[in-house]
From TrEMBL:
This is MFS transporter. Gene3D superfamilies: MFS general substrate transporter like domains. Coiled coil: none annotated. The keyword Transmembrane applies. InterPro entries: MFS, MFS_dom, MFS_trans_sf, Proton-linked_MCT, Tet-R_TetA/multi-R_MdtG-like. The keyword Mitochondrion does not apply. The chain crosses the membrane at residues 7-27, 47-66, 78-96, 102-123, 135-156, 168-188, 224-247, 259-281, 288-304, 310-332, 344-365, 377-396. Residues 1-401 form the Major facilitator superfamily (MFS) profile domain. It is found in: Cell membrane. Its main location: membrane. Pfam families: MFS_1.
Length: 426
């Protein structure tokens, strides 16, 4: 197969594999299962959603380590064992007794092993295979993650209705086995040296020789600090809505069936956000795209809190659309402002903040509900924070590593204003 076609072949299979990410295996399902688990075990929403926070917190701690391992060992050696352990941990949830400490322990361990299926490895893989149209490639891969978020509530809802909520975890494990483990075992891999040459590499042949900044150098740039802060804010603001979405809607008198459908629609909106955002990143300066993306959840919060007609459903889709754009933006801007030399490590730190957001966000929304009986306080906190970071994005400035420069083997650019060069890479 021609190497250019193989590059997009890898993007296609990455899109399939990422449908079984932690978002579709754990986070979206818990939005559906939050109420039934709380009711059966007699736990408060803070206690039940706290399981997601523990899961995300342990994932946040481990994510930078996995990023460094990806830089050192490549995709397959990290992805395969992680998927296997994740599926085992997920299936074990179906047999746990109603002991909170035991659920907290298993969810914490699941957070550690599932870091390898949080999307980071396959997004990194797409970035290694495609350079000039990297925004589109990342956007396409991201549609798989969003599709998984749309599919998993349907799987969970159907299994829960007919067989009980415990069976849902078995169904999710089987889903992950088919769409994530098999491609990881037999298809997904990094480009070989001779393929890298055909993709545009001229002199660099190892992961350590890729052009870009080191971790130490990146921390001295304003761009990375803006990325760090904005990533944490948006990571806290939107996942909290995702985890509590079904409860948010049913509290307003919307039926469980419509609430689950709304969660699936939010997943489809996420898919649209990833594809549209990925396309726009190749034609519009990324910080400007990010400003629009950050505005969507603010509008979504207003609609979710209104309780008027179909506005909460539209608000859920606004939040979903923004969730589609944010992960693409983080990965794309990391590659363009910081390069590929330490991409796994730097993106791993940012991904750790995304995971930390899943620990903080749901807890804040739960605390808002438990203390005031509504989620409005959380809407105000995160809405204001999103507007503040949105105003900081124009200060990112020009890309350091432009298309055909961040590709492996291209010449190192001037840190302040890298010239654009021609390249025959994908």
């Amino acid at each position: 197969m021609d190497v250019q076609r193989r590059a997009w072949w890898m993007v296609s299979w990455s899109t399939i594999a990422i449908t079984a990410s932690v978002a579709s295996l754990v986070l979206s399902p818990f939005s559906v299962l939050l109420g039934p688990i709380s009711q059966e075990f007699g736990w408060s929403r803070s206690q039940t959603s706290g399981l997601v926070s523990i899961f995300a917190l342990t994932a946040a701690v481990v994510t930078p380590v996995v990023g460094r391992l990806l830089d050192k060992h490549g995709t397959r050696k990290i992805l395969v064992p992680g998927v296997i352990l994740t599926l085992i941990g997920l299936a074990s949830l179906s047999i746990l007794p109603p002991q909170l400490w035991l659920w907290m322990t298993v969810m914490g361990l699941l957070g550690v092993v599932s870091v390898t299926v949080n999307g980071m490895p396959v997004v990194r893989l797409a970035a290694r295979w495609v350079d000039r149209r990297r925004g589109l490639a990342i956007g396409i891969v991201g549609t798989g993650l969003a599709l998984g978020q749309a599919i998993s509530p349907v799987i969970v809802g159907g299994l829960m209705t007919h067989y009980g909520w415990r069976t849902s975890f078995i169904g999710l494990a089987v889903f992950g086995l088919i769409v994530a483990l098999l491609p990881a075992l037999f298809v997904l891999r990094d480009p070989r040296p001779e393929e890298s040459v055909k993709l545009g590499e001229t002199t660099h042949h190892t992961e350590e020789e890729l052009p870009g900044l080191t971790v130490k150098e990146a921390f001295k740039t304003r761009q990375y600090w803006i990325l760090l802060i904005s990533t944490l804010v948006i990571a806290c603001a939107m996942p909290g809505v995702l985890v509590h979405l079904v409860s948010i809607l049913t509290d307003q008198g919307i039926s469980m069936e419509r609430a689950v459908a709304a969660l699936s629609l939010a997943g489809l909106a996420t898919m649209a956000g990833r594809l549209i955002g990925g396309f726009l990143l190749d034609v519009i300066h990324a910080p400007y795209v990010a400003m629009v993306v950050f505005l969507f959840p603010v509008v979504g919060f207003l609609m979710l809190g209104s309780g008027m007609g179909i506005l909460p459903l539209i608000g859920a889709m606004c939040v979903g659309f923004a969730m589609g754009g944010e992960a693409d933006l983080v990965s794309y801007m990391t590659s363009r402002y910081l390069g590929m030399k330490s991409f796994g490590s730097l993106y791993g730190i940012l991904f750790a903040l995304l995971a930390l957001g899943y620990a903080i966000g749901p807890a804040v929304y739960a605390a808002s509900y438990d203390s005031t009986g509504s989620y409005h306080t959380a809407y105000w906190i995160f809405g204001i924070a999103l507007i503040v970071v949105m105003l900081a994005l124009p200060f990112m400035g020009k890309y350091r590593f432009r298309p055909a420069v961040a590709v492996p083997g291209a010449h190192e650019p001037d840190p302040e204003d890298a010239p654009t060069t021609q390249n025959t890479g994908a």
